[in-house]
């Protein structure tokens, strides 16, 4: 992996490897000294063209726990002008010898453009681009789901997939980079994905996605999902005639107290409720649902740091752009073999 | 092709006779042609005998002789954006691409919405002398879609404008469109519509479909084009006017135009070379070189457009040559300008997509690239048969040539060719514009000197 | 004990067979107990991947001498991947789990266990990793094979076998817990040399 731009082009093996590494990173978070020297002397730039304190802080913590130097560059509202901004900014960062650029941008494809342009040599990590993808969010969601799934199964998380799991994603899929990244990643990891939302907020062309689409949330819940992921409803959509009113949206598509009770009635004791945050309480999710024991919202935030550590580590260590497992030089016996963490690698 | 001079003289611009030996006329039998005084003087075995001793001889064995291509849809950017293109650079690119006439779209700055601006562009074209440059007049003042521009004044100006278009912007007000269609009947004009329903395409970035769903780019739905075409053909029928539809891009549009033609509606349609070859799959790269309006569509659309061009539902190929300075493409997709260059690749792309697929022969190629566009633009001296007594606007093409597109070597200022790196067939070896070779040996030769009378406004430049 | 050269043109020589390995580990186990004057505060940390099964085997042997010792409670694994000094020069490595015994390592006598001691860089990384996890009273090093060519001032306290090698050669340790060769579990130490 040279860049992390989308989950659509992430192979199952690379996705699992990243999640497995994230498990080890999570263990570091439990230690007294929560720091590893792996990226000492490397520079990670957080290049944010859009405000997102949560994501920025998560990446910053991840980079710092790996001992990287972090530069935060909030391009929004600065003198960066339209059109030339991305190229000029990229060249500035190149001149500062950035090793990785974590980019959040309102334009779909901006990270891919940065990675392919030749303006910069650094590894590019997509921290959310327009309505395209948000791969680290999907990875932390998958990480959270996998821990839940493995726990139910009584097996260690590392190495397991999401095979057999049914995940329902609800809301504004059309404008959601979180939904897109999750659809690709979760299906790659073996999960079955269901989408539910108003027809106006499902993209034309969704029929080609590897998902089942429901226009009625209760019909979708009747499929007995193992996880329900509620998408945030962006304020700017509320007045753009995608649906008649927020009240109607909330009644038809919100995860309210009635639907929370329904899970109990249906005997779905192990079904979790997810939300990428920040939540519109009372709109797409009720407070009771958000704060219920089913909610994984805080676990998702916590896991974000581990997953982002894994991403930065895998992108920045090593001199090879190839997947090392494909072309592995023989090691001296002095060195541990470079194998992905597998169940056998975990000790009792 | 080799160019030879007999009697020891050299091929200078002043040479007035050209003897073309053994060119395949429209892909058919080989024949000799003698070009003299701006006309095709002789076609056939007696051409060599008729040539004077100073005639320049061109060995055209293996080359196809075609009428010079006529583009109904070129953006020359002058006046206003001379950093993107000028009449001079654009018409050089046109000559190299095998064109002898191009229509300069009205979206310059200032907009070509007055007799003054169209005459300026016209005069710049004459001064350049590489091809015939015919300005397109704006339909509405400033392309604003509010008030009709002075269409009559532009028609009666020295530029004799016959094609009117707000291209880049749709004349979406139905009443305004109706009035425009009616009004240009007074001087045999035609409205060339950029069919794009504005509300359905707010913020649109690419074709709306499976690819846009994945890429998270705002969709430009086919219905936004088709609904305007449907409305316009009915308006044209109602008022009995001529309508030309620019850059048709969808299979649905083809069906509507086919229906309209079957009903006898006087509609003509155009397709760009890029819509005959490229699909929205290319957008997955997010490389703005593939950003264009209307957007690249699906392979089903591409095949429907090819079939329509072959069966005459679509009448012409128009390049929609749209050069942009590199900074307008070296950015994020959403901020990038729409448009692609096309003049220097049109022949090769159409040969590749239409001729080599067996959909068109060279005669059909001449129909869609020269005869039909000249008729729509009312250019009586272009798109003519290759016969004695006809104006010598013709090209010699090597259909067996193969070349790799390299935008950095093009004559246009635009480097935004979506065909970069593709190997394409066919190369223009010579272009004769009004009997004067603007291209020889596949390279620019010399521009034609405008007749003095045309510069003073007494006679049109092409009046030979 | 010379194995015919394989098709790949690599000459293989078995230098320790299963019984040799077992004898060496028995001796090391006794040395560890002797140096520590018993099993008190002992923790054996294997360095992945092959150091860990060696640590387990040593713990078994210690337990055989001192039945009061539960081998599982004194054994752990120490991953050093993130502390290596060559992360940028080699293809990306995935870290493996670090698992400490329930008693932790603070004020313990930690014996690092690895299969082959070569440049010493792995042990340097292990010492750094250890420092981030706690503060042992004493740290010792046990290796199955010391092949020389040290690049750092590091030496082993307990060595199964000293093997003079050329740097061109490779020392491969195969342990039944991890390595399957031709479908069967093998315990051996092999020197490979390109012909």
UniProtKB/TrEMBL annotation, chain A:
PROSITE patterns: CARBAMOYLTRANSFERASE (PS00097). Carbamoyl phosphate binds at residues 54-55, 104, 134, 137, 277-278. It is an enzyme of class 2 (transferase). Pathway: Pyrimidine metabolism; UMP biosynthesis via de novo pathway; (S)-dihydroorotate from bicarbonate: step 2/3. Residues 164-315 form the Aspartate/ornithine carbamoyltransferase Asp/Orn-binding domain. Residues 2-146 form the Aspartate/ornithine carbamoyltransferase carbamoyl-P binding domain. L-aspartate binds at residues 82, 177, 232. GO terms for cellular component: cytosol. The gene is pyrB. Its EC number is 2.1.3.2. This is Aspartate carbamoyltransferase. It comes from Arthrobacter cheniae. GO terms for molecular function: amino acid binding; aspartate carbamoyltransferase activity. Heterododecamer (2C3:3R2) of six catalytic PyrB chains organized as two trimers (C3), and six regulatory PyrI chains organized as three dimers (R2). Belongs to the aspartate/ornithine carbamoyltransferase superfamily. ATCase family. It comes from the Bacteria. It catalyses: carbamoyl phosphate + L-aspartate = N-carbamoyl-L-aspartate + phosphate + H(+). Pfam families: OTCace (PF00185), OTCace_N (PF02729). Residues 317-348 are annotated as: Disordered. GO terms for biological process: 'de novo' pyrimidine nucleobase biosynthetic process; 'de novo' UMP biosynthetic process; amino acid metabolic process. The keyword Protein biosynthesis does not apply. Residues 320-329 have a biased composition (Acidic residues). Catalyzes the condensation of carbamoyl phosphate and aspartate to form carbamoyl aspartate and inorganic phosphate, the committed step in the de novo pyrimidine nucleotide biosynthesis pathway. Keywords: Pyrimidine biosynthesis, Transferase.
UniProtKB/TrEMBL annotation, chain B:
It catalyses: (S)-dihydroorotate + H2O = N-carbamoyl-L-aspartate + H(+). Binds 2 Zn(2+) ions per subunit. Its EC number is 3.5.2.3. GO terms for molecular function: allantoinase activity; dihydroorotase activity; zinc ion binding. Residues 64-251 form the Dihydroorotase catalytic domain. GO terms for cellular component: cytoplasm. Pathway: Pyrimidine metabolism; UMP biosynthesis via de novo pathway; (S)-dihydroorotate from bicarbonate: step 3/3. The active site is at residue 320. Pfam families: DHOase (PF12890). Keywords: Hydrolase, Metal-binding, Pyrimidine biosynthesis, Zinc. Substrate binds at residues 75-77, 107, 293, 324. GO terms for biological process: 'de novo' UMP biosynthetic process; purine nucleobase catabolic process. InterPro entries: DHOase (IPR004722), DHOase/Allantoinase_Hydrolase (IPR050138), DHOase_cat (IPR024403), Dihydroorotase_CS (IPR002195), Metal-dep_hydrolase_composite (IPR011059), Metal_Hydrolase (IPR032466). Gene3D superfamilies: Metal-dependent hydrolases (3.20.20.140), Urease, subunit C, domain 1 (2.30.40.10). Zn(2+) 2 binds at residues 167, 194, 247. Zn(2+) 1 binds at residues 73, 75, 167, 320. Its cofactor is Zn(2+). Belongs to the metallo-dependent hydrolases superfamily. DHOase family. Class I DHOase subfamily. Catalyzes the reversible cyclization of carbamoyl aspartate to dihydroorotate. This is Dihydroorotase. The gene is pyrC.
From TrEMBL, chain C:
Belongs to the purine/pyrimidine phosphoribosyltransferase family. PyrR subfamily. One of its GO terms (biological process) is regulation of DNA-templated transcription. HAMAP family: PyrR. NCBIfam families: PRK05205.1-3, PRK05205.1-5. It holds the Pfam family Pribosyltran. This is Bifunctional protein PyrR. A motif (PRPP-binding) lies at residues 110-122. It is an enzyme of class 2 (transferase). InterPro entries: PRTase-like (IPR029057), PRTase_dom (IPR000836), PyrR (IPR023050), PyrR_bifunctional (IPR050137). The keyword Lipoprotein does not apply. Keywords: Glycosyltransferase, Transcription, Transcription regulation, Transferase. One of its GO terms (molecular function) is uracil phosphoribosyltransferase activity. Its EC number is 2.4.2.9. It catalyses: UMP + diphosphate = 5-phospho-alpha-D-ribose 1-diphosphate + uracil. Gene3D superfamilies: 3.40.50.2020. The gene is pyrR. Regulates the transcription of the pyrimidine nucleotide (pyr) operon in response to exogenous pyrimidines. Also displays a weak uracil phosphoribosyltransferase activity which is not physiologically significant.
């Amino acid at each position: 992996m040279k860049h992390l731009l989308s989950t659509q082009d992430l192979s199952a093996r690379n996705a699992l490897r990243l999640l497995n590494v994230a498990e080890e990173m999570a263990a570091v978070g439990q230690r007294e000294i929560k720091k590893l020297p792996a990226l000492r002397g490397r520079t990670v730039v957080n290049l944010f063209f859009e405000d997102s304190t949560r994501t920025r802080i998560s990446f910053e913590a991840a980079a710092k726990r790996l001992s990287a130097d972090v530069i935060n560059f909030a391009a929004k509202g600065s003198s960066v002008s339209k059109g030339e901004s991305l190229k000029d900014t990229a060249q500035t960062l190149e001149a500062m010898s950035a090793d990785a650029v974590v980019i959040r941008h309102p334009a779909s494809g901006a990270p891919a453009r940065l990675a392919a342009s030749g303006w910069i040599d650094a590894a590019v990590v997509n921290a959310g681009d327009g309505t395209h993808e948000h791969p680290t969010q999907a990875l932390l969601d998958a990480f959270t789901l996998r821990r839940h799934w493995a726990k139910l199964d009584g097996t260690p998380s590392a190495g397991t997939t999401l095979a057999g799991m049914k995940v329902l994603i609800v809301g504004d899929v059309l404008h959601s980079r979180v939904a897109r990244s999750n659809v690709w990643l979760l299906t790659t990891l073996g999960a079955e994905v269901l989408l539910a939302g108003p027809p106006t907020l499902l993209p034309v062309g969704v029929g080609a996605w590897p998902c089942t689409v429901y226009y009625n949330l209760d019909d979708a819940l009747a499929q007995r999902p193992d996880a329900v992921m509620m998408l945030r409803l962006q304020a700017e959509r509320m007045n753009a005639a995608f649906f008649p009113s927020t009240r109607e949206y909330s009644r038809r598509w919100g995860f309210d107290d009635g639907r929370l009770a329904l899970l109990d009635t249906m005997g779905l004791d192990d079904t979790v409720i997810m939300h990428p945050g920040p939540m519109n309480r009372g709109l797409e999710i009720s407070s009771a649902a958000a704060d219920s024991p089913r909610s994984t919202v805080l676990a998702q935030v916590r896991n974000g740091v581990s997953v982002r550590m894994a991403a930065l580590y895998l992108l920045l260590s090593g001199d090879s752009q190839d997947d090392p497992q494909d072309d592995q030089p023989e090691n001296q016996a002095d060195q541990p073999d470079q194998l992905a963490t597998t169940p056998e690698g975990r000790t009792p | 092709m080799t160019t030879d001079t007999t009697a020891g003289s050299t091929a200078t611009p002043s040479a007035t006779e050209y003897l073309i030996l053994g060119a395949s006329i429209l892909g058919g039998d080989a024949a000799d042609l003698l070009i003299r005084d701006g006309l095709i003087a002789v076609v056939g075995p007696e051409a060599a005998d008729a040539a004077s001793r100073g005639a320049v001889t061109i060995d055209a064995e293996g080359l196809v002789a075609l009428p010079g291509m006529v583009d109904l849809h070129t953006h020359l950017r002058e006046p206003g954006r001379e950093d993107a293109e000028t009449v001079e650079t654009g018409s050089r690119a046109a000559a190299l691409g095998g064109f002898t006439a191009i229509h300069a779209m009205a979206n310059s700055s200032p907009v070509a919405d007055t007799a003054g601006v169209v005459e300026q562009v016209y005069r710049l074209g004459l001064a350049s002398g590489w091809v015939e440059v015919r300005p397109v007049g704006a339909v509405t003042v400033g392309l604003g879609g509010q008030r009709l521009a002075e269409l009559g004044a532009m028609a009666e100006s020295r530029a004799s404008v016959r094609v009117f278009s707000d291209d880049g912007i749709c004349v979406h007000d139905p009443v305004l469109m109706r009035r425009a269609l009616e009004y240009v009947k007074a001087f045999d004009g035609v409205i060339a519509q950029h069919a794009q329903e504005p509300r359905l395409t707010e913020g649109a970035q690419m074709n709306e479909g499976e690819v846009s769903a994945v890429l998270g780019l705002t969709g430009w739905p086919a219905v936004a084009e088709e609904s305007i075409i449907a409305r316009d053909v009915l308006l044209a029928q109602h008022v009995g006017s001529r309508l030309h539809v620019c850059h048709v891009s969808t299979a649905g549009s083809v069906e509507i135009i086919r229906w309209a033609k079957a009903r006898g509606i006087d509609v003509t349609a155009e397709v760009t070379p890029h819509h005959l070859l490229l699909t929205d799959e290319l957008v997955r790269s997010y490389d703005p070189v593939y950003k264009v309006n209307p957007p690249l569509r699906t392979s089903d659309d591409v095949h429907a457009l090819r079939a329509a061009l072959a069966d005459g539902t679509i009448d012409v190929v128009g390049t929609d040559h749209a050069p942009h300075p590199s900074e307008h493409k070296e950015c994020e997709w959403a901020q990038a300008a729409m448009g692609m260059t096309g003049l220097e690749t049109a022949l090769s792309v159409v040969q590749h997509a239409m001729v080599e697929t067996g959909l068109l022969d060279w005669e059909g190629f001449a129909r869609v690239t020269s005869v039909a566009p000249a008729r729509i633009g009312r250019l009586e001296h272009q798109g003519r048969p290759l016969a004695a007594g006809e104006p010598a606007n013709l090209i010699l093409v090597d259909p067996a040539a193969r070349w790799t597109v390299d935008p950095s070597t093009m004559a246009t200022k635009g480097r935004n060719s979506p065909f970069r790196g593709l190997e394409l067939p066919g190369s223009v070896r010579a272009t004769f514009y009004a009997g004067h070779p603007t291209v020889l040996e596949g390279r620019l030769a010399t521009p034609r000197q405008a007749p003095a009378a045309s510069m003073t406004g007494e006679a049109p430049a092409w009046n030979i | 004990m010379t194995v015919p050269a394989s098709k790949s043109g690599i000459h293989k020589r078995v230098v320790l067979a299963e019984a040799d390995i077992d004898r060496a580990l028995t001796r090391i186990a006794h040395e560890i107990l002797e140096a520590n004057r018993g099993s008190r505060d002992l923790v054996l940390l294997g360095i992945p991947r092959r150091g860990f099964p060696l640590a387990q085997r040593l713990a078994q042997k210690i337990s055989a001498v001192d039945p009061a010792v539960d081998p599982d409670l004194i054994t752990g694994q120490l991953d050093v991947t993130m502390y290596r000094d060559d992360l940028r020069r080699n293809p990306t490595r995935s870290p493996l789990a670090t698992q400490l015994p329930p008693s932790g390592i603070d004020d313990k006598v930690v014996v690092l266990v690895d299969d082959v001691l070569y440049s010493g860089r792995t042990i340097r990384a292990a010492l750094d990793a250890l420092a981030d996890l706690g503060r042992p009273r004493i740290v010792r090093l046990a290796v199955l094979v010391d092949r020389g060519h040290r690049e750092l001032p590091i030496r082993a306290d307990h060595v199964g076998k000293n093997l003079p090698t050329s740097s061109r050669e490779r020392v491969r340790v195969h342990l039944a817990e991890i390595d399957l060769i031709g479908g069967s579990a093998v315990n051996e130490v092999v020197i490979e040399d390109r012909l």
